[in-house]
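Protein 1 of 2
SEQ + STRUCT:
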Amino acid sequence: MADTIIRGRKNGPLLISGLASYVDGEGNKQTTGGSTVALCRCGASANKPFCDGAHRKISFEAPAIELSVTPADD
């Protein structure tokens, strides 16, 4: 299984790649179809938890980050 990579773009969203699925706020399993998912980290998105570009309008500032997540063996 591939690692999930989480990249925080400088002054922008968290980009999640390698994620096959997630559980939404209503408890439903959603698949990503292999797409990269952009999550808001500025708090201003009208489409939370997803990024809608609002960080540009509010001059959000945050450092770039990168994490690699390997699932635990069950």
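Protein 2 of 2
SEQ + STRUCT:
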Amino acid sequence: MKRSEQRKIELERDRVRARVVQERYQKKIDERNRVEEKQQQRQHKIEDEKRQRQIQLLHKEQETEKARQERLLELQEEHERKEQERHKQKAQIKERFEQAKKERHQKMKQHEEQMEQWKLQKWLTMEEKQQQVEQRRLEKLDQIRERATAVR
């Protein structure tokens, strides 16, 4: 009988142990579930806050859309004004470049004309000197002829 009693006691102990283990396991599961639920609540709260911020941002964007459109229009007008100014400056620069080009061309032409005139003047001067030399030679010849005629 001792054996059967001992067996009963062991069975009872095993049942108690199993129940204790089951209760501990259940407590852990319950604790994990509570933690997960709190985590989900926190996550939902974060998502709700995020949605609220997005809604607020959307409202703010809608409120500022008109101001943004006006600013965009101002920027476009300013861009067009600057573009026109740039074209105007470009045209002025091109005009000045063309003017400078014409002036350079004119100066070169003038310089060439001056060089031609100088060459002509030099040639004329040389021609004049040549004529003077020729004249002197002729005069000397005449003098020699006169002397020769006078000597005879």
